[in-house]
Write a structure and sequence with these properties.
Length: 391
């Protein structure tokens, strides 16, 4: 008789798209590799819909209007302790809804892709034997992710693995897998695809013609909600550069897409996209990327082997992500439009600079992190090894 499929619950939050994208990538791998029954739950949205809407609005507005304040709050709480008074309050939201979900679904393991950690206290209160794992979705380690009762941590790099250990997490609980992204982002390098072949592949399957020989393709990712500041001025100046093709993804910002369409609909070297599901194909056809430094998009760019340019990163996890990748040689940060344009010119005119960044990116690249996470989780569930605790 075939064993029942393992039931796994993934808790995420919809502050931006990164946490849910990570959750979906892990879900796909678990279903494919282990035939698991996986449920996704936006815990804050389900348990406190009004508060969730308010905090999402404040979160988005802080990026646009008061980024310095957001960064100050992020950095002053970066060293927070989970069991402090502040941490206990922060991690208490959603406990009632989570208790109902656990009773109804009876999962065998719970995964967090967002650090809303109501479950450790609930597990202790209810006396549950339920493994809990955290998947850290940035190249920076905020204290919200750290809790002594989490059984397994999956992190982006060995540096974060070491930092988590230094901050009190037993090293055997921490695995440097990389940040989980969709497997299709690895197609280009896994198949050793020639850039011209990748370009032709995109031209055949998606609404974009192939580039001319000698042309550099620059992908601009404005963010899931199209909130990259100054993008109209950036596009205006980049559109004047010779031998440069622009692919601009506006995300869920129809107003931005409409403005860019009005300006560049007839421009032969510019293509404008809204919220799309074929970003991997665009990355395969690109030579470099300008992006907001969210952990997921940065990981997608690294997987695609693209030199990364970051424009005016917002203080907080995004700035810290960007600074880390800049330190590693995989990204460059521009604090204003002129710096950004000059960085583009430098990369276009100096192939050795782009090559050096690609070599640095290769050092950071971790193949198929979602599969690695799924395989490790399945190994723990099947073999019941002690690396995931059940008390």
């Amino acid at each position: 008789m075939e064993a029942a499929a393992p039931k796994i619950l993934i808790l995420y939050a919809s502050y931006g798209e990164g946490h849910v994208q990570a959750a979906r990538a892990i879900m796909d791998s678990l279903r494919r590799l282990g035939r698991c029954e996986v449920q996704l739950l936006d815990l804050m949205a389900e348990s406190h819909p009004w508060l969730n809407g308010l905090t999402k609005f404040v979160y988005m507005q802080s990026f646009k209007t008061i980024p310095g304040l957001y960064g100050w709050v992020y950095n002053i709480t970066r060293g927070m302790q989970a069991k402090s008074a502040f941490g206990s309050v922060l991690h208490s939201f959603g406990m009632r809804q989570l208790a109902l979900t656990l009773e109804e679904e009876k999962p065998e393991l719970v995964i967090h892709t967002f650090p809303q950690l109501a479950l450790p206290a609930l597990r202790r209160k209810l006396g549950l034997k339920l493994p809990i794992v955290n998947v850290v979705t940035d190249f920076d380690l905020h204290g919200r992710w750290l809790h002594p009762d989490i059984d397994r941590y999956y992190v982006a790099t060995e540096d974060i693995q070491q930092e988590a250990a230094q901050r009190g997490i037993p090293s055997e609980r921490i695995v440097a897998t990389g940040i989980p992204i969709h497997a299709s982002f690895y197609k280009r390098l896994a198949e050793d695809t020639d850039p011209e072949d990748a370009d032709a592949d995109v031209a055949e399957d998606y609404p974009i013609p192939p580039s001319d020989p000698g042309t550099t393709t620059l992908l601009i990712m404005a963010g899931a909600y199209g909130v990259m500041s100054g993008i109209l001025d950036i596009c205006r100046q980049l559109s004047r550069l010779p031998q440069l093709r622009l692919l601009i993804v506006c995300g869920r910002n129809p107003q931005l897409k409409a403005e860019l369409d009005a300006l560049y609909a007839d421009h032969p070297g510019i293509r404008i996209f809204g919220f799309i599901d074929y970003v991997p194909a665009l990355m395969r056809a690109s030579d470099m990327v300008i992006t907001k430094p969210g952990g997921i998009t940065l990981s997608e760019s690294i997987a695609s082997g693209l030199p990364i340019l970051v424009f005016k990163p917002v203080p907080g996890q995004e700035l810290n992500n960007a600074l880390y990748l800049e330190q590693k040689g995989a990204a460059r940060i521009a604090r204003n439009t002129q710096e950004l344009i000059q960085l583009c010119v430098d990369l276009i005119s100096n192939p050795s600079l782009a090559l050096g960044m690609k070599q640095s990116i290769e050092q950071l690249r971790k193949p198929h992190p979602a599969d690695r996470i799924a395989e490790d989780i399945l190994h723990q569930l099947v073999d019941k090894t002690p690396s995931i605790r059940t008390n």
